[in-house]
Design brief:
Length: 345
């Protein structure tokens, strides 16, 4: 016969600490107005008894669920194959864990999933949302706006009007692209191509704009659209070689695209960087240091972007529940990028 072990109650905590149940409840559930010596006695009693607070009761006091939705507007096959998402999730998870908040991951396979995500957010299950990898025609921003949950976006939002101000964290995609292309020009390359990311995403558009800032009215055949994947880089590089066999440099929209570019150049007998110099974007070490040759790339701090997204959201939640003043911080944060030189350019 198995003996049932009862869980410690709030009453037991109050008795151990020598305070009323109401006082113990305020301390455990994050309420104010309790003198510090009593707070310490209650906390010590919680630790000694191994008491676990009731989340429903805590939410009534704090008006918080201590849970944040992370919405990635990509199918799971893309999310789990691209190290970018793992790095960003790591940064988000570290920040949320430090503040005792849970991460709820939501992915979108198709339009039906957008509706499901909007319905979940509107249902009051989480305190806020962190959203990234949006596409320009994505209905998610409207659905999230309708759900009324505080939100921070990863990447510059695709809307430019002031009617829907957005808090976001991004990298200097345009400036980083300019630095990469200037480096190629400085190497004496004259037929510099760009393989873009998916042009329904603002990061890809900004990197293309940075390329054009340096190259001006370059031969339009030297720009080929990719999709941020190795397969997309391979396809685009084959197309580029058919269009412009004399290409002597390629700026790829991300490291995964660049890895596909390098494979095709190796197949075609083109030496890197002797015949064709190659630069990527991201500096994801599992990719950039393992390519042959190692990849020159534009570094953005992906993990820090995730941490900062979570930090801005938590700050906004504290402001809304009265734990901070009314200053909500900046609407948009753009982190700097750095060119990391390796053997490919």
């Amino acid at each position: 016969m198995t003996e049932t072990v009862s869980r410690p109650t709030l009453e037991a905590v109050a008795a151990r600490a020598g305070v009323s149940r109401a006082t113990a409840s305020r301390v455990v559930n994050g309420g104010d107005g309790v003198r510090e010596p009593l707070v310490e006695r209650v906390r010590r009693a919680v630790e000694e008894l191994g008491y676990v607070p009731n989340q429903a009761a805590r939410s009534l006091v704090t008006r918080r669920h201590d849970a944040v939705a992370v919405v990635i507007a990509e199918p799971e096959t893309r999310v789990f194959a691209d190290p970018f998402f793992a790095l960003q999730l790591r940064g988000i998870s570290k920040e949320l864990t430090a503040h005792d908040s849970q991460l709820v991951l939501l992915l979108t396979e198709g339009r039906d999933d957008h509706t499901r995500v909007g319905r979940y957010l509107a249902g009051g299950h989480v305190d806020g949302a962190l959203v990234f990898s949006l596409h320009l025609d994505d209905p998610l921003p409207e659905l999230i706006h309708g759900a009324g949950v505080p939100t921070v976006f990863g990447g510059r939002p695709g809307w430019g009007d002031g009617a829907r101000p957005a808090v976001y964290v991004d990298s200097d995609n345009r400036g980083g692209a300019r630095e990469a292309v200037r480096h190629l020009v400085g190497l004496g390359r004259t037929r510099i191509a760009h393989i873009t990311g998916a042009l329904d995403q603002t990061s890809a558009v900004d990197r293309l704009d940075g390329f054009r800032d340096v190259m001006g009215e370059a031969d339009p055949r030297l720009v080929v659209e990719g999709d941020f994947t190795p397969a997309g880089g391979e396809r685009a590089m084959r197309e580029l070689l058919e269009r412009c066999p004399d290409v002597d440099a390629v700026f790829a929209a991300n490291d995964l695209t660049a890895s596909g570019v390098l494979r095709v150049l190796r197949e075609r007998g083109r030496r890197v960087p002797d015949d064709v110099a190659v630069i990527g974007f991201d500096d994801m070490l599992p990719v950039a240091e393992q390519t042959d040759p190692p990849l020159t790339t534009v570094r953005q701090d992906i993990e820090e972007m995730g941490r900062l997204m979570a930090r801005l959201l938590l700050r906004d939640l504290d402001r809304r529940t009265g734990k901070q003043g009314l200053d909500g911080g900046p609407a948009g944060v753009v982190l700097p990028t750095t060119l990391v030189r390796r053997a490919s350019a």
